Amino acid sequence: MAKYTSFTPEDVATVKRVIGSNWMKSKELEQGTGFSGAKIRAIANGACNLVSNTQQGYRHVDYATADEVEHSIADLRSRIAHMARRAGAMEIHVITKKFGSTSPVLEQGSLL
Known about the structure:
Blueprint (H helix, E strand, L loop, with lengths): L8 H11 L6 H8 L3 H11 L2 E4 L3 E4 L5 H34 L4 H5 L4
């Protein structure tokens, strides 16, 4: 599991000050704040105040439009669904490899 990167309220304020009302790529935020990409992601994930868009980067939620927020939420939900499918496929692979195709878990369909 990935190591959690901690941050402080001051770190969140620094990101808000640097990003302003603009969209910024992660690399631009790293340069502007001096924070690592992992810390930027931790702030985005933990403080819930950065709207992300894979094309445009990050924007502070105070300056995002309703459409931008909705797009970010839809993107996050899509990623969650993809990760859930990937985790299920991985579980099936491991159970099949460990127990064979006659696994009681697979026969009951609890993972499908």
